[in-house]
Design goal:
2 copies of one chain form a homodimer. With 303 residues, the first copy, chain A, is α/β, with parallel strands linked by helices. In chain A, 42% of the residues lie in helices and 17% in strands. Chain A has helices at residues 5-13, 28-39, 51-61, 76-88, 102-109, 150-166, 188-201, 216-220, 222-227, 246-259, 284-302, and strands at residues 18-23, 43-49, 69-72, 94-97, 123-130, 137-140, 173-176, 209-210, 240-242, 262-269, 275-276. In chain A, strand 5 and strand 6 (137-140) form a beta hairpin.
Amino acid sequence: MIRKFDDIISKAGSGKLKTLSVAVAQDDAVLEAVKIAKERGIADAILVGDEAQIRKIADSLGMDLEGFRIVDEPDVAAAALKAVELVHNKEADILLKGFLDTKLFLKSVLNKEVGLRAGKMMSHVCVFEIEGIDRLLFLTDVAFNTYPNLEEKAQIIENAVEVAQACGIECPKVAPICAVEVVNPKMQPTVDADELTKMCERGEIKNCQVYGPLSMDLAIDEEAAKHKKVEHPVAGHADILLFPNIDAGNITYKILVRTAKVKNGNVLVGTSAPVILTSRSDDFETKINSIAFAAVISKALTE
Amino acid sequence: MIRKFDDIISKAGSGKLKTLSVAVAQDDAVLEAVKIAKERGIADAILVGDEAQIRKIADSLGMDLEGFRIVDEPDVAAAALKAVELVHNKEADILLKGFLDTKLFLKSVLNKEVGLRAGKMMSHVCVFEIEGIDRLLFLTDVAFNTYPNLEEKAQIIENAVEVAQACGIECPKVAPICAVEVVNPKMQPTVDADELTKMCERGEIKNCQVYGPLSMDLAIDEEAAKHKKVEHPVAGHADILLFPNIDAGNITYKILVRTAKVKNGNVLVGTSAPVILTSRSDDFETKINSIAFAAVISKALTE
């Protein structure tokens, strides 16, 4: 089982290297991440975009493009679609967003002919190594789905379970996180958490243990769970934290990155291959970590 | 201006000492906090409850009750009401919850004859010193109000502004925190944040600067705000973080306490005197910090 971010990096680099397809690759931060990912043996890449601009940026970065396949497509929309198609056709394993608008990028991902639809809902999963916590935590959804209903929450859990399994956690413990650990009909997240627990008990959510509502401390802190006498295998030991809404998820993500000692990587799943939506506000290591995380997920999908 | 928790402790201990009224004081954790608060010169206390039990617990703690006024009232409901009345009559300055159910405690606080109603909405404010952040942050509401509407959010801001002012911040910067920094009609918190900003511009929310929606990083991190070119005095410099709902607020509170290096204290305001609702899951220092925080607020109310 993977317990540290370094294990994800190692696993990404073991066996046959995975290949990124970079949509609109003329972006300095993205090209630099791709360069380092290749140097560290984390992933290879195909660069799709305006070749002249890609070469210019690579020059300024001191990046040797020897060994990278480049697909010259100066038109942004066409480049995005081409990058998606390379993954669709299995010439590449992971889609990485470059220098284009997120809406246009996602439109290409969902293209009916060459896109990456898998008949499932897409969702965002991030993995965190946090100082003082002895295992990886998978947070979902902090960036893509806004106010999922019960059925959508079940699908978000299923997507995250596949990701956690790719990281070697056979039967992940899932905590639907709420403000309180008791069901309160006036607090919809607690009602949903209770229902998700029952759905898992009835086998409607598979390959995991779901238990909630749990407050954050009762989900991740064994001592807190003991203190409050909440006895359940998930309490204090959650692997996957399901957030009730994007407000709670995104704010938690941002405060963790800003105030705790963490390593993290982020990926979109529910597609036929992992998709990386790096943001310019992510630091450099987060971009590399996201590539490694996606490579580990891709390996699990194909091996 | 107060920038560190130690400054709150010092301010609490300066001048005339404030007095706690402890409702149902026969609780070991609460008595220990009261003992240390007195030893450190943070606050004095009147102990209301079952005197025999109070003396027994004090004995077991090695606590000298000499110098504490004790009001013997073995009945829990009567003791709660008596403790509230002492604050109502200005014999004490701060109400501290002891060994009783939160609902019964709050019922006493809101009692029409001897309670602490101030014609305002009650709300919870916590103050955090966080390693790596150069000022105190006031978080509201992470524990009391669940899903406040726009008007309630305005009142929660006003309550928090009074608290920040008590800590020497004359015109606090208030960020209504959201998942994103753009107004999206499908995300109510962003709509409310925009409206709160306008209410402040129109002078409907006073004595502060409100600006939102802001994501957490853009609210507290100057570099992130610069990077995203969000130019406003509040961006990157928020003192008060208004949470969109209790899910986001409570989860953020719990993750901060668990994963960052923090000192924090919590208080209920909107009443005629500050009320402390310590929870058994708070650690010992948090209880002492909450007493000091309440004392500083009480000083501002009366000086």
